[in-house]
Design brief:
By secondary structure, the protein is mainly beta. The chain starts with 26 loop residues before the first strand and ends with a helix. 51% of the residues are buried.
């Protein structure tokens, strides 16, 4: 199919975007649900990993890269736009339902369809059975690829005429060109094959004819090989299944299969091999230039914003999910909608940042990385190596580097991330929420071998992991999302095939299959409502942050500093906010080797308070002294904090300038967890510091705190100043699993006996029970991610608060009541006690806030909700 002429319009970003499926690109990737086609077609035909071929002349086909089958051929208008990326493309925040009951389907008239069996088979007979190892749920067809000996998909190669599919079948190399055109006004689809090394007879399973067109659909086989010797014949089974018998051959062979409604349908000669593989002409020759906006802040670390190329000739939405840097200084950025852009001009003043489209057609990718000079993208089909073989600045070969792991059609089994490891392998992460079936590797972190042929599970039992990999040591970290079985936001080390606590809601409740590995630290949900990926600042030029671990927050856009603590036998970590000066919700980040700064990107689809749909920003070190802590260590007599700045002595030595509290969580099948005091009561236990000491170099403090003990969550806050008079405040969150002994002289302090005499806490200011305070709490606790205050429902998984109070509500059990203060109070403390009809099937539950916020704060929330008339 020849590329269409490039549009010349340059729309404003407020104008509606062009269609998600572009007519000038020959394929896109998608799930295809063809289980309900009827017409005597297979009822199990679901393709979790599909290449949708836009053949032109209103003809379409879907190739299953796992089973190497053409799962369907049809005439019509493509597929229904119900996937997560498509439904949110024009309407940000719109999400596809959880599970596999609302998936993309054929829009049009099916001609042929196959069931769940390999599309190519060897032997005297062929089978209609699935030879792959079953998933935990036998009904799950997303079982991964065929065995290496049975076949393996290799590449989608773009050509002037469309695409060439390359794959191997039982030792034979297959190249397939799929095309369509009109003959006498009727559409005709042709599949043309070239096989090399076919050392045994093979079966090509074409599919079963639809009963709706069975009398009119004609199949023609041109089976002459390169010497015009017949090599293939079509055999129809009694039930209408069509299969092509291909003879063994010691030399390359070719044949064609044409199908259409014309009684005299026939194929046509394809261009010979040299021309058939000619890459296409340039599709996206134009570039777009944007201009960065540098921060005017005077802090040590500031955020510079880089506008996206939203005004582009193709009216293409740009929702960046990840980026990676090439050795020449360019960046490659991938979008959730399957595009890759090349970016030049990052660094220094960001005056002219140039964007050029590089490729398209990927399936909801959330990760991109570089290994050597090769560019890799991880999407729901697997890991793709993208190659520009003719050097024209656009990809013409999508090589499937690895699909050595399973993928279901579950809408929440996202390909959440990919990172290269120092040994040449790749680390990938996969979403774990399951609504219809249980798959093989949902919710896992996997190491893919350097050659892409093997996948080894490093960790499992994760709800929605986002990862980081240390580029020198290979240490793998991951965050997870609070929800069922995940009581708060964890930050994990992933290793040793450990189980991390999440199990599908389809499985028996709280029947854990293995011991649960604890995280490095828990982070309170109100502080980090949606933890995403981590970035190591190795070889950065970011001053005190060089080699530090960065953790990204999504719901409230935020960059955190994660301080690892290896002082005890068990690794621990503390998390501190670095900046909240982001206009978009970040997902991933990377260090630019040219300027040594951190670039982050992301887009909005899940709950977030960000106003900008997507963005790209640089975290820039200005050289100003940084008051961020360098080390935080919980000890037997308190907490040690080290800084890079010299502290003002009087403030640092006053225990009144520190506050602390601690609590535990409870892991259950419920969504999230209340806070529990160490004695089991609801809430947090206040810890009043007794003393504070400044080190001899003036850069460390030790806060004496009585009765230190191991708990799941501890918060420590400080309000200090540098010796130069700069004031700063921070909160740190950590999990003190082990408490090492404090040795004052070894830590750089004067010899001292830590005073642990209990000290009376300063009376806290009373919480004002006002609408303003309630609004502040709603923002702080993440309520606005699920509940709107303006009546909108787009992207929300809970009822709007506007007009809720004083009106009748109906619950899932059919009962009704007026939403009064008692109902609101109960909903905050016990959200599962009464669930509104229509929200009982939501994939996002609400955690209990009993013991998390005070009674006065609850009353302030109620006042705020009442004010939203």
């Amino acid at each position: 199919m020849s590329p269409a002429a490039e549009p010349s319009a340059n729309p404003s970003p407020q104008a509606p975007w062009a269609d998600f499926v572009e007519t000038n690109f020959p394929f896109f990737s998608s799930v295809l649900d063809a289980r309900q086609l009827g017409h005597e077609l297979p009822a199990d035909n679901l393709t979790p990993r599909g290449i949708i071929l836009n053949l032109g002349s209103d003809c379409w086909a879907c190739f299953d890269t796992d089973l190497l089958r053409m799962s369907a051929v049809w005439v019509g208008h493509g597929i229904s736009p119900v996937s997560m990326s498509q439904v949110s493309y024009q309407s940000p925040g719109t999400k596809a339902p959880e599970g596999q009951e609302s998936l993309p389907q054929i829009v049009g008239t099916p001609w042929l369809a196959n069931g769940i069996y390999p599309g190519w088979q060897a032997g005297e007979q062929f089978s209609r059975a699935d030879p792959r190892e079953p998933a935990p749920d036998n009904q799950e067809v997303g079982r991964g690829p065929l065995s290496a000996s049975a076949g393996r998909f290799k590449a989608v190669r773009l050509t002037k005429r469309g695409v060439c599919l390359e794959y191997g079948v039982t030792g034979a190399s297959v190249r397939e060109w799929v095309e369509a055109r009109r003959e006498e006004g009727q559409p005709v689809v042709q599949r043309r094959f070239r096989l090399e090394g076919a050392g045994q007879p093979l079966w090509l399973i074409l599919g079963r004819r639809s009963s709706g067109v069975v009398e009119n659909l004609k199949i023609a086989i041109d089976s002459g090989d390169l010497d015009n010797t017949p090599v293939a014949e079509c055999i129809e089974q009694p039930d209408g299944l069509l299969a092509v018998r291909v003879r063994r051959a010691d030399k390359p062979i070719e044949f064609r299969v044409a199908m259409g409604l014309n009684p005299a349908v026939k194929g046509w000669n394809g261009t010979r091999e040299a021309n058939a593989d000619t890459p296409p002409a340039v599709r996206w020759s134009q570039t777009i230039t944007t201009h960065g906006v540098l921060s005017s802040a005077k802090e040590a670390y500031v955020v510079d914003n880089i506008p996206l190329p939203l005004e582009n000739p193709w009216r293409r939405n740009v929702r960046l999910s990840d980026l990676a840097f090439l050795s020449d200084g360019r960046a490659a950025a991938v979008t959730f909608d399957g595009d890759v852009w090349m970016i030049s001009g990052l660094g220094e003043d960001l005056h002219a940042v140039t964007w050029r489209r590089f490729t398209s057609g990927l399936h909801e990718p959330l990760g991109i990385c570089i290994r050597g000079n090769d560019l890799f993208v991880f999407d729901r089909n697997g890991i793709w190596r993208l190659r520009d073989t003719d050097g024209n600045g656009e990809v013409d070969a999508h090589e499937l580097f690895s699909n050595a792991f399973a993928q279901t059609a579950e809408t929440r089994e996202f390909a959440t991330g990919i990172r290269p490891a120092p040994d040449g392998s790749f680390i990938i992460a996969k979403g774990g929420q399951q609504g219809s079936t249980t798959g093989k590797q949902n919710g896992t972190v996997i190491r893919v071998s350097p050659d892409g042929r093997e996948g080894t599970v490093l960790g499992w039992g994760l709800r929605m992991p986002f990862i980081g990999v240390h580029p020198k040591t290979g240490l793998v970290t991951a965050s997870d999302q609070q929800g069922n079985y995940v009581p708060a936001t964890p930050l994990h080390i992933i290793r040793d095939h450990q189980f991390y606590g999440f199990i599908s809601l389809l499985l028996p409740k709280e029947k854990y299959p293995a011991p649960i590995a604890d995280p490095l630290t828990w982070i309170p949900h109100p502080i980090n409502a949606s933890g995403v990926s981590q970035v190591w600042l190795s070889d950065a030029r970011m001053g005190p942050l060089n080699d530090a671990l960065i953790h990204l927050g999504y719901y409230r856009p935020e960059i955190f500093l994660a301080l690892l603590n290896h002082r005890a036998a068990r690794p621990q970590a503390a998390v501190v906010s670095l900046t909240r000066d982001l206009a978009f919700a970040p997902l991933n980040g990377a260090v630019d080797p040219m300027d040594g700064q951190l670039y982050v990107t992301g887009f909005q689809i899940w709950g977030t308070v960000a106003k900008q749909i997507s963005g790209l920003a640089r975290l820039h070190y200005t050289g100003t002294p940084s008051p961020l802590p360098r080390e935080i260590v919980p000890m037997d007599k308190g907490v040690l904090i080290r800084f890079d700045v010299t502290l003002e002595a009087k403030r640092a030595s006053d225990p009144a300038n520190y506050s602390a509290e601690r609590w535990n969580y409870l892991r259950t099948a419920e969504y999230g967890s209340p806070h529990f005091k160490p004695d089991g009561g609801k809430g947090q236990e206040a810890m009043t510091p007794s003393s504070a000491y400044l080190s001899q170099d003036g850069k460390s403090v030790f806060i004496g705190i009585p009765n230190m003990k191991s708990v799941m969550q501890m918060r420590l806050a400080w309000a200090l100043a540098t010796r130069d008079g700069a004031h700063f405040e921070h909160n740190a969150y950590f999990t003190p699993y082990e408490l090492v002994r404090f040795n004052p002289t070894a830590e750089g302090f004067a010899p001292v006996t830590v005073d642990l005499t209990p000290r009376s806490p300063t009376a806290a200011a009373a919480t004002p029970v006002t609408a303003e305070e309630g609004k502040r709490i709603a923002e702080l606790m993440g309520c606005v991610a699920c509940h709107s205050a303006d009546g909108s429902t787009l992207g929300k998984v809970g009822p709007t608060w506007k007009g809720l109070f004083g009106h009748e509500v109906m619950f899932a059990d059919g009962s009704k009541m007026i939403a009064n203060e008692a109902y609101l109070r109960e909903s905050i403390k016990a959200p599962t006690a009464k669930v509104l009809r229509g929200f009982d099937k939501s994939d996002a539950g609400m955690p209990s806030y009993e013991g998390v916020i005070s009674d006065a704060q609850i009353e302030a929330l109620i006042v705020y909700i009442k004010s939203l008339r």
